[in-house]
Amino acid sequence: MKEILFLAYRLLISDRGKYTALLVGTTFSVFLIVQMTSSFAGILTKASATVINVGASVWVMDPAATNTVLSSIPMPDYVLDAVRSINGVKYAVPLYSGAALVKLHDGTYQPVTVIGLDDASLVGRPELLQGNIDDIFAENGFIVVKDEEFSKFENPTVGTAFELNDHRGVVVGIAKVPTGALYGNPTLYTTYNRAIQYIPSMRFTLSYILVEPKSASDIPYIKDQVARIGYLALTNREFRNGISDFLKYKTSIGTNTLLMMVISFIVGLSICGQTFYTFIIENLEHFGALKAMGAKGRELVYVILFQAGFTALIGYGLGVGLSTVLITAAKLRLPEYSSRVTYTNLGLAFVLVLIIASASGYAGVRRVLRIEPFDIFRG
After folding, report:
1. Which of 146, 149, 90, 141 is nearest to 117 (CA)?
2. What is the pTM of this model?
């Protein structure tokens, strides 16, 4: 078997032109698939930035507010008291999440996302790089997140002043968070009461309720009791999955990504399939000679499958490597670039490459198994 596979390898690389064409087709297909799925994965992560950064175990919300964090529907204050009274709830605190327009020092206006934390506990507060968390209770105190959008806030320092809805705001801290926001706006943290005081809103101001259960076994009961009062309780993972499902199935982002992935797959399949079939046709005399020397059909199948699989794996590695290098370089130059390579992306690309290799090999196997040594030598 080793001799047969070595012969298959020598036959494959002997025609440098065809071998290069096979590698280029596979590499290009993998590159496009990884690029598109990585961009989509980055978008999904950034869309759930507030959920990830706050990190609450359970989120209580209006049932119609599960699409994105920014589409929260305010709830009346009595819901907070009702949730706190549920058995199994360790604590429940309010959270404000909304958008505002800030006037910067140079007179320009910048949209921002404002997160209002519970005044008593500051549950969900970010990790500070500069400043003291207690200063958020000072007059007009805000914390700015240092992420990809930080420069849009004119790279503030502690003490920088700005204006929000005719109210003076002062940066009292610079923070970092696990992931930046998707919508291209800087993020400010302040207290809940200051947020609802500074930002115009409807009659109700409670965006979400953050719940910490006494134990994981209490979560089903909490969710059931919240549903009884007409609201929805989701775990952190469920909330993130709901946001992802919304982007996948109810927006054009998922459709466009799927379309580009299908196009990439078709391009790779057509290039590799046609090139590999041409390679088999041009080497029929070698396969006929092997058959005349006693090679069984099974061994010829091994030869073709080895050639297709070897090319697919090399092309897969080159495609993933090229995509990773490009994503890394893009992030160094463009901080807002949201691509994120995940094991799911790599696994999906690997499966599609195997399908391309199988389809290409199948066409070659059918042609080789039909040849007769007599026809080869007679030609």
Report:
1. 141
2. 0.78
Residue 131's Cα: distance from chain center in Å? 32
Cβ neighbours of residue 23 under 8 Å, at least 6 residues apart? 311, 314, 315, 318
> Residues of the chain whose pLDDT is less than 70?
1, 3, 66-70, 284, 294-295, 371-379
| Residues in a beta bridge with 171 | 142
Strand-pair partners of 187: 113
HEC secondary structure over 235-304: EHHHHHHHHHHHHHHCCHHHHHHHHHHHHHHHHHHHHHHHHHHHHHHHCHHHHHHHHHCCCCHHHHHHHH
Tell how far CA 119 is from the center of its chain.
33
pLDDT in tens, 200-239: 888 888 999 999 999 999 999 999 999 999 999 999 999 9
- State the Cα–Cα distance between residues 2 and 6, nearest whole angstrom: 6
Q: Is 108 helix (H, G, I), strand (E, B) or coil?
A: coil
**Cα(348)–Cα(355) distance, integer angstroms:** 11
